[in-house]
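re the bet — no i am not wrong, look at it urself. input seq straight from the record:
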Amino acid sequence: MLIKSPSVYLLAVLCVTIVTPAQALVQRAFVASYGDDVNTATDCQVLAPCRRYSAAVTVVNPNGEVVAIDSASYGNVTLTQSVSLTAAPGIYAGTSAFPGLIGITIATADVSVVLRGLTINGQGGPYGILMTNGAKLSIENCVISNFSGNEQYAVYVDTAARVTMVNTLVRDNFVGINLQGGANADISESRFLGNGIGIVAKSTANKSTTAAISDTVVTGSFDGVSAFSGSSGNSRINAVRSTITNSSNIGIAAFASAGTATITFSDSMVTGNTIGYLQVNGGGTATLKSLRNNIITDNGSNTGTLTTLLPQ
């Protein structure tokens, strides 16, 4: 009979103790103003949270979540797996983008990201949310503001991802949301206030980009809502029950230097803009389609052709 010494058992226990934490991930991790990133050793749990998003996301499973316990700024983060960053109502869960830094970066294929209840503040950085690869991005109940410098973007998507924005405030940015690279977006119940450009969908590199806008207000912009095609692809925006108002330049614009750019709107208001609508064929085909239930009034002028449609 083989008898093992106590030292053999001790060695086995130590090996399990050392290896297991490195392999185990959790479904939910926490961050707090009083947290410490050394708590990744115990998975950033509620009684010992981490301080920054970038630490907490390293201990969660794919499709896990990081929850902000109290009000604080939780730093910049690059997300390389499917994850949710969440703050409860009444909690300020902030991220500030200082010069040279990006608030939240998503650049990994096939990931799905949910951002819920976050505040992303521009402090000289180029992007609030930058997505150049990935499958899905959902922005819910967020505030994204102050990316107001030249070529600064609250949200910039350049990949064929499914993007959803719900009940979000996008304020005082150079561009509110830029969609290109084959992105397919749904924007609903949101407010775009005082941006240089509120919403723009672009076809680039022969990829088609679409956006559906509903129950949304775009006001106080330089340009409100734009579809632009600069390649052989298509850019398309469909807007319903929305308001585009008080743009100092153009309310809605479709411009195609190649390919097609189309905006279709119904049950919406375009009013108080210097130019209410602009349609320009610049080598491609630009189309503005309006159902006869829209209100287009009190604009300084309109340019181009508006195609009216009968409801079916």
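see?? The CA atoms of residues 206 and 233 lie 4 Å apart. told u. also The longest strand covers residues 60-68. so pay up
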